[in-house]
Design goal:
By secondary structure, chain A is an alpha+beta fold. Helices cover 42% and strands 17% of the residues of chain A. Chain A has one domain. Chain A contains 4 helices and 5 strands, in the order βαββαββαα. Chain B is an alpha/beta fold. The chains are: A alpha+beta (101), B alpha/beta (424). At the A-B interface, strand 1 of A face helix 12 of B.
Chain lengths: 101, 424
């Protein structure tokens, strides 16, 4: 059985889509909810707990989506930039390091 | 008897007309009655009690009532179902300093203005931890209802309330504020025999819209369709806020927008508000909502997945199961239980868990997820979120939220209060 991951959903607005297209990463997006584009950045249970501790305003939606929601846009922008820089969705360890320095 | 509320009792408004109120105020002043200035939390419940939102309660609970609620989920009479304590707390110091004694008639003020008369018939203490466990099923102060319970002062006063100075409900809430009696008048005017309540503290996405439409169709049954004989009441809960909640103004105006922009016919849809601080008590709060909406005159009440829950304290369907534990006939409202609605990319529509056979393809969405989408500056597709509602959220952010559609410290400090008590 695949290990459960707890995504942070980076919803793709025009600005983000342009950056992804420029980096040749537009294919990383999934289409969900009637065409809405998202980059789902996976977290382990440990990473999820660390993120919720660092950003207490964030919420793990236990009831419906099992995703980490309500991170401030500025925080999600940083995660997004890291995804573009590394051309990978596996960025959470590095992101957490920058936040706990 | 008309206007029968929860518990089979007639709804009584404990509100004095202005002349009588002024006379009573002068009598109290002459008798040097003790005066207590109350905080918003208490003022809100004084208003609810006085207008019959909490009928058959006519005042703050006595110790016997609180014990009944905690142990048996009934008032002290042992029959009337009630699930959440409604209490007036006071610190030991304030009690001593004020010299309040049992059977005193005290004057309550709010923001310094005369507000209500409180006939104190009981002064008591409570075991807060026991209340937390029995009402919320946990003693963890992370639970917002438990936290509120632990924040109560150490002494409690019980007794009847009489409002002498009605609140001025401020914009944009004025047109949404109807007392239980006014609400019933409104239903009569509309010719509604069936009134389905939708409980909300959120702006609506299409999942909510389809829940309401599903409930309407289900409950309408075999009533004649020659004219609308039933409708949906969106009764938004306006009360204490948590960081990241939608601002109250966005909630109420966006709910109304569903009728205004035709997603519901205006003759089958009504938006109002009730003042209540959510306790997030899950199943017990569901029962409370049923009692409250019975008092508003509703015939049906929708209960979705994880109704009034928080975190993972309750099973998603605890708030449905609790109704099976209540004695038959103890509630005069019919619960409508809902499973999840989701977006199905195969059906290409928002659809219902109990009907859609593409579970493995489903895209679930929640109010929290929609908030996250909006925070990211993305306009969700109209099948998920109505564009007029999105535009209205943005307008509310500018007009009422100091640039933000979600509750911030700044909003809490600077917002226009929902109600004010003016000098009498």
């Amino acid at each position: 059985m695949a290990e459960e991951t707890y995504p942070i959903n980076l919803w793709i607005n025009e600005e983000r889509l342009e950056k992804l297209q420029q980096a040749g990463l537009a294919g990383m997006c999934k289409e969900v909810l009637a065409g809405l584009k998202v980059l789902a950045v996976p977290n382990t249970a440990e990473q999820r707990d660390t993120i919720l501790k660092i950003f207490p305003m964030a919420k793990f939606d236990t009831a419906t989506t099992k995703s980490i929601e309500l991170l401030p846009k500025a925080v999600k922008d940083k995660i997004f930039d890291l995804v573009v820089k590394k051309k990978s969705l596996s960025v959470m360890d590095e992101f957490i390091k920058t936040q706990t320095k | 008897m008309e206007n029968i509320g929860h518990g089979g009792k007639e709804i009584v408004e404990r509100v004095l007309p202005k002349d009588a109120a002024l006379k009573r105020l002068n009598e109290l002043k002459a008798a040097k009655a003790k005066v207590l200035d109350v905080r918003l939390q208490i003022a809100t419940e004084v208003i609810d009690i006085a207008y019959g939102f909490f009928s058959p309660l006519e005042g703050f609970m006595t110790k016997a009532d609180v014990e009944g609620v905690c142990n048996n989920m009934t008032l002290a009479d042992g029959k009337t179902v009630w699930s959440i304590p409604i209490v007036f707390d006071i610190s030991d110091d304030e009690l001593k300093k004020s010299g309040i004694k049992q059977y005193d008639e005290i004057l309550l003020t709010y923001t310094g203005n005369p507000f209500a008369i409180f006939d104190v018939t009981d002064i008591f203490t409570l075991d807060k931890k026991e209340i937390a466990m029995k009402v919320y099923g946990t003693t963890e102060d992370k639970h917002p209802g438990v936290k509120r319970t632990y924040q109560y002062q150490d002494k409690f006063l019980g007794g009847k309330i009489t409002l002498i100075n009605p609140p001025k409900i401020n914009e944009p809430f004025t047109r949404f504020w109807l007392t239980p009696k006014q609400m019933r008048e409104k239903f009569k005017e509309k010719g509604w025999e069936m009134i389905i309540n939708h409980q909300t503290r959120n702006v609506p996405h299409t999942g909510h819209e389809w829940l309401m439409k599903g409930a309407y169709l289900g409950a309408y049954g075999s009533m004649m369709v020659d004219k609308p004989r039933g409708g949906i009441l969106v009764n938004a809960i306006i009360g204490s806020k948590r960081d990241g909640d939608y601002i109250d103004e966005a909630i109420i105006l966006c709910q109304e927008a569903q009728g205004k922009y035709g997603y519901f016919r205006e003759d089958t849809f009504l938006t109002t508000c009730s003042l209540w601080d959510m306790r997030y008590a899950g199943p017990r709060e569901a029962v409370f909502h049923a009692c409250l909406r019975t008092n508003l005159g509703c015939t049906h009440h929708m209960f979705g997945r994880d109704h009034a829950g928080v975190g993972s304290y309750y099973d998603p369907y605890d708030a449905h199961r609790i109704f099976n534990t209540l004695p038959k006939g103890s509630l005069n409202i019919t619960p409508i239980f809902n499973l999840d609605w989701w977006f199905c990319p195969v059906c290409d529509e928002v659809t219902y868990m109990g009907l859609c056979g593409h579970k493995d393809k489903k895209a679930s969405f929640s109010g929290t997820m929609i908030r996250s989408i909006i925070q990211d500056g993305v306009k969700p597709p109209r099948r998920i979120f109505r564009p007029e509602v999105f535009d209205l959220i943005m307008e509310c952010a500018e007009k009422y939220g100091f640039g933000d559609a979600f509750v911030t410290e700044d909003y809490l400090k600077r917002r226009n209060p929902v109600f004010t008590i003016e000098p009498l």
